[in-house]
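Data availability (excerpt). The following record was deposited with the supplementary files.
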Amino acid sequence: MPTTELSHALATRFVALDTHRHYLMVGAVDSQQQVVLSPRRFGFAAFAEWAQDHFTHADAVVLEATANAWLLYDQLHPLVAEVVVAHPQAVKLIAAARVKTDSRDTIKLASRLSANLIPAVWVPPQEVRELRALVTHRNRLVKQRTQAAHRLHSVLQRHNLDPPPGTPFAVHQREWWLTLDLSPAEKLRVQQDLSLYQTLEALIQESEAELGRLSTCDPWVKQVPFLVQLPGLGVLSAMRILAAIGEITRFPSAKHLVGYAGLGASVHQSGETNRGGRITKEGRSDLRGIMVEAAWVAVEHHPRLPSPV
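Predicted structure:
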């Protein structure tokens, strides 16, 4: 029996945490789904103290996959038999109930845990969490830089202007932009968007330099060399893929990884009807996006791959 199933089988109390921004609700049922701990409300600091005195290794705990889920997981994992981080879809079903209160949600979640009906998410180790956070931060900066660039391009389009030669938003192009015949308000917006773009460019370079440094550290240094040998992949895209996948050994087969990325073909099978369709697009959209980007780079630049139509 796998360790998680064994821990669940040994548990005698099933505790649910219904987490909110400033507080959480705690409630529990036993193996017969009888309430043994009526829902009560805690602040996070008070809950940390209460947990030390009231949790035992006969408890199994479930919590939602929210922003502070990993902090709560780390606090509770040494104290109990099992901590399950619920897939958002499981919590969504509870949220759709016609009668919804914090207390009812907590007991429903505990009851699902008691019946072993919680679809759990994988809990990444600390190094994967750090890498994912850095990749997410870098992606956010890139999105903001793109927005600033679009606003500057729209200025050119509104006034039927051609962009300056070379890199249009580089520091040495600033004078060109500021000499445009624009209203004072529009000139101010252009000046600020240029400053924002150039600031974001520097921050993105810092983030990518840190990703490059991490690629030379454990555990990534052993994995990156295999990925960068593939067409379309460099160090940055390799680190983004590793962040999305985490520990590849958790996938029992290549098909499971394909499904995780949402790149598998959809299937409709009913009676004698059996047909396939487009990719499912279910799973990690960031991993799917990186793979598509890499595929485009590969077909555009690799001599042995066909060029895009």
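Summary of structural features: The longest helix spans residues 126-158.
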